Each structure stands twice: as C-alpha cells, then as structure tokens.
Amino acid sequence: MEFITLNNGVKMPLEGFGVFRVPDPVQCEQAVADAISSGYRLIDTAAAYMNEAAVGAAIKKCDVPREELFITTKLWVQDASYEGAKKAIQVSLDNLGLDYLDLYLIHQPMGDYIGAYRAMEEAYKEGKIRAIGICNFSPARFVDFCETVEVKPAVNQVELHPFFQQENALATMKEYGTVPEAWAPFAEGKYGIFTNSILTDIGQKYGKSAAQVALRWNIQRGVVVIPKSVHKERIDQNIDIWDFTLTDDEMKQIAELDMGHSEIVNHDDVMFIKMLHGLRIHE
Known about the structure:
This protein has eleven helices and ten strands. It is of the alpha/beta class. α2 packs across α3.
C-alpha cells in the first residue's frame, strides 16, 4: 500500500474500501472484515449509508491496531448546520465505537455547510477528527469554499473514473492542496468498464483486469480510490494493484475515454437537490 500526505501532514492510504449501498449489517460487517484481512486500512462510510455501526463492529473485532486504520465518515444534508454537525460528529463516533475519526467529510454542498464546517474545524482542533474535508464540490463551489473557511479541506471526494476524469477539478484542488478522492471509481459498472477494450488490452500486458487498470490509472493521477465489493475475490483483486505501473502512453490512451460529463448524477438537477434535502436519516 502507498500513502499520500494530506495538507496537514496526516498520511492517508491511496486505496481504501467503500461501503456505499451495503445497508445489511451482517453483510457490511463481513465485507469490512474481509477488506481489513486483505490489507485495506482505509474504510469509507457515511451517516447516510446507515451502516456505521456495522463498520464499527468489524473494526472492533479485527486484530489491526486502531492507529493503523484510517476511518472516514460523512455529515448528511439533514445535519448541515453548526449545531447539527456538532451532534452528528458525536453520533458517528458513537455508532462506530471510536474515540476519533481520521477523516470527516461534508457529504453534499447543501444546507448550511459553512456553519457545519465551523463545527468540524472545532472538532479538528480538539483532536476528535484528524482531517476534515468535503464531497461533491464542483470547482467553482470548491474555490468559494476554500476562500471562505479557515482550515482548507484536506480531501474533496468526487466522481472520478475513466469516463469522467475531471482534470480541471483536479488542477483546482491541487492549487489549494486538497487531495482528490474518487467515488464510483468503476463508474458504477456503466459504459462497459469491465470489458472496455482499451482497459482490457492494457491489462493483458500486466496480467490485470480492466478494473485493476482503472484503479491504477486514478492512483497514478494522485487520486485516492475506494472501490466497493461484498465478494471476497473481488475485494482481493481490487487491492492487487501495487505491482505494476502504467506508462505515459497507456495513461494517454485512457485519457481518450473521457466523456467530459457525468451520466451517473446531475448535481445541478432541481429534483435531485430536493430529494437529498428530503432524505431524513434520523428524527
């Protein structure tokens, strides 16, 4: 495993394990346990995934020292305010059974996220969180945010995969010392990513799958990846990407796959915004 150093000096694994859409507690706990046994040390969850407790159960049962794990969770839209975030941070700590979080992110740029971030800054200074950041902030909103807050976000987790590469967003994050992290590094299985001829042909050279090539490509761009699977074989395959390096020519071939837009979600869609505001994760 390789690491990237965040803007506050904290080291973060370049690859982690995501648990989005794994709500079943038994399945989630087993998947996290399998991931940790396979060598993953970064685990990415969120309050809105409704599986923090299952993640915490797996962490408690594993034999890896807490300081070797890097646990991330996220603040939901419902709690996007100063007081809401203060409470939500503690709820997540309690759900996970942890004394501190390694990374805490604003899940969506909605609601009073500036007020929420103030509470996160306080928790960061108190040592409850080792690093703080954001998710789904477009370049313009990201810049406005960075110019407003005191503690520059350590991470911005956004959609990043070969079909939506966001080079402009990556350049903007670099300017502010923010590390990009990819959700949906497999494009949620769209566009035939697992059988794409360019990715497959490159993979054959190294004895790797198209999925492994897609992960390696993002990592070589300095992007943290958090692939998800509930299948032990796939969990093992996804972390087996540290014994090969893509050439400049291969990176350029993959760059040609970029469509320049997302077909997974439109963060400017009015109904999507209303839907997220209406999604309540607690009373």
